Amino acid sequence: MSISSTIKSIQDIMRKDVDVDSDAQRLSQLVWMLFLKIFVGAVARRLPIAVAGSLSLA
Nearest 5°: CA angle at 39, between 48 and 33? Predict the structure, then answer.
């Protein structure tokens, strides 16, 4: 599945949410979801290294 079809699918799901009124709000929420997904993935990749290195996240 390509990234554009994935985003289109997410947008279609978000359009069903009654609390989101406009495309600008949907875009804002989508950007935050993508940021958090990437951030959590980055932390998850660093965590085993930090645990092995005596919990130093610096």
Answer: 140
